[in-house]
Specification:
57% of the residues lie in helices and 4% in strands. With 521 residues, the protein is mostly helical. The chain is globular.
Amino acid sequence: MTKWEMEGIKIQDTGRDSGSDIKRLSQKNGVLYIVWTHDAIWRGVEVNRAGNETCVEKVAVNLSQMSFKVIPRLSYTSALSVSASLYFHEPRISRRTLSFNPLTASEKVEALPLPQNLKKEVLCLLQPVGEEIQAFLEQFWSFLEGHCNFHEKLSWTYLGTIDYGKSAGNFVSSGEWSDLQSFKLACMGSDPENILRLWPNVKEDALGEISKRDGFRIREVFLKRSDLWFKFWVCHLSLQMEHFKRVNELNEAPADVSKLHIAVMKSNVGAARYFLDDSLMGRIPDLANSYLTRLHRREFDPTTFVFLVNHLNEEDSKAFLNLHSAECLLRCLTWPLLQFVLPMCELVWPGFDFDANIETLLQRVLIKIMQTQEPVSYENIFKTLWVKTPPQYKLMFITNITYHILYNLFLGYDLQQVMAEIAKAGQENRIQLLDLFMENANVVMSLSVEDNKYIAFKNILEKYFADKLIENYEDRYKRFTQDYVNAYYGENISSDNSLSDDFMSDDFNSDDLSDSFSDND
């Protein structure tokens, strides 16, 4: 272990020594810095604006084997626990007591006796944590409703996701369920220890229940998660996997491969880990490629992705990244813990297909910014990606914003009402109010460089304001769109002279419009 690895991310001396293996160090006070060693990227954030240094977390992306490892900060684990607890209001949980509104939960944060930096971290985690709990309860609700303090038994991974296996084990260990119900819980979470322990006690009842429901004739695609994994494990333990294979069109695959295949494709890491042995390691590259390909348009479980890439060798990992660079980055954006995104970007950027994927990637981050209550992490990711993006693709993105982006930006925003309110203001305040309106990021990006949006907005202006404003509006429109790009994306996309005339007017003077509003209310 090198000196830098032992010290983690808290580096005081940037000089080389025989054990450092540092290739590049970029450090700014209070800003992200990255240290490259011969086999990993260590990444963290140092906060030192008031002379105080906070402990940072350490993220490793192994370049030779794509190994994702995180040593979470204490503040992160604490914020995760606090965020989860804010969604539960009474000891005994029922549908009536559940609330997954991040706005409601965030109102309670300010009253918490926590340091300000921890409150900010809680706010950033509230929405993804709520979504994770909601997805978990959709599958486990039939078992958990009415049970006390079950949220205290949830186990969280370093990725910011619920560990279904450990959580199921915690439920079973509490003794609140019968053996058969406990067995079903263990099957849902694919907790092999409890599955094997309980099987002798429930074998007869489990087989009888499946036989009564004639379940072997039902394709797994139509089953709820509880039915699917209950049936899966019972078939495995009773040596009746051929039934499961036949109804799921897996007859040609050997039994062990079919089990691993089902576990991976259904995002069940507990089952995949149980059925993976040395003889099947050679199957991992095909499974990894198949997993991303089949789930290209669907949500997927990040723990399954990490499980797969952690079992790729150097040659396979490079091939995997070259083939799925965009998908890997897009999948990372779905995780509550976003620290993998930028290290992943460093890995895949050299071979990234900008023509095919850059617009989709930037749009996806922008959607996250607009849909997230505390979007600081996504904003930082967007700025970093934007700086790395070649100028011609930045122009393409600005000029080709698609409908679903505009829809998200306008969501909950009544443009007509805003204009009506501005028009009602006193003569001296109208230009200032319109300035504030145009400086709003949502508005500007909604109107950016798309003719039909520009014309629609111009028509609304004509309804409320004098012709003189409309005559000068094109210059004003260009100024605000360019100002927004400069301020939020850290770079002037009009640095090329050929773009300047399209995006910005240098001779614009806001004083020329001071008397341009009509007196009509």
